[in-house]
Structure formats: structure tokens, C-alpha cells
Here is the input.
Amino acid sequence: MSIDVLLFDLGGVLVEFSGVQDVAPLLRKQLSEAEIWDRWRHCPHTWQYGIGKLSREEFGERFVRDWDLNVSAKDFLREFRTWSKGLLPGAAELLAVLRPRFRLAALSNSNELHWERNTHDLGLTGLFEVSISSHQIGLCKPDPEAYLLVLERLGVPAEAVMFFDDVPAHVEAASALGIHAFQVNGVEGVRARLMKEQLL
Here is the structure.
């Protein structure tokens, strides 16, 4: 196996995303963590904003209305932007070890506000040769076209890429294209898989 590119999801793999914890206090009606996650994954406004189909103002107004939040849309958007917290412990060190040996890339289901924070506030996107957010390309994982676009941009075949994500459906979609894809939980999950594949 000759791997040229290591492709990473961000939230839950290399980056701490705190949405469930941070939205809970804003709800007028209390929901469990599992209920919030389920609603988040099926929220049409989150999905549309994540593929660039809503402005931040439209997203904020619709989210506050439909989730019945106890804050204004403006205040929600200010809070929402901070939900991307930064690199998980050990992520920067791991990427520094890998960078001399592999091309590093990121493919994230993200949105305009979180990508702004990741790029300008946290400097995360600069850690990768190529970093792509769903809102930039109008496509979310697990859409096969999202992965194909990354392969095209990198100029490599699927079999030259190893991909790490924390969502099973995203891993399955990448695998179906011939990418070496693995479900991992956080930085230690990435490290353990790299060691198992004898790449670290």
C-alpha cells in the first residue's frame, strides 16, 4: 500500500466541536444530548447552511425560530461561531510528525462561520496543503462527489489516499470509491490506526 495523502475530517477527529453542549443552555425546552445530536444531524437549516445555500443571517433566524432558542439570532450566531474550539490535544504534534512524509489534507462538513474561525482565529486550515469545507463546494459528505472533488484537487488516485472520519457513513462512502478509509475517535484513534497500518 503506497499512501501519498492523509485526508482528515476535522470535528471529532482533530478539532473539538462543542455544539451539543453549547446549544443545550439556549433551548427553552430541555433535550437530552442524544436528542440534540439527532436533531442537529437532521436539521434542514444546518444542512443548507453547511452547503452554502443560506446566508448566516437566514441560518440564524431559522435556527432560533425552529429550535425555540432563548436568544436573538444575532446573539446565537456570535455563540455559534465559537463552537469550533480548536485542535484536540496532540493533534498539532501528530500533524508535525506526519507532514514530512505525507501530503496532508482536510475535508470537513462545515459552514461559513466555523470555517472563518478555523482559518482566521485558530489557523487550522493552514496546517493542510488542501483544506475544503462543504459550504465552499456545495456538497456534504457522504456525497461521493465531495470525495471525487478532493481527489481531483490533489491530483491523486483514490488508492493513494487514507481518510479518517468519525462518522461511519462518511467512511463507507469513501471506501466505496477505493479510498483507504477508517472510522476513528479523536487524535488517539488516528494515531492507533496509523500505527496499525504501519504508517507511524
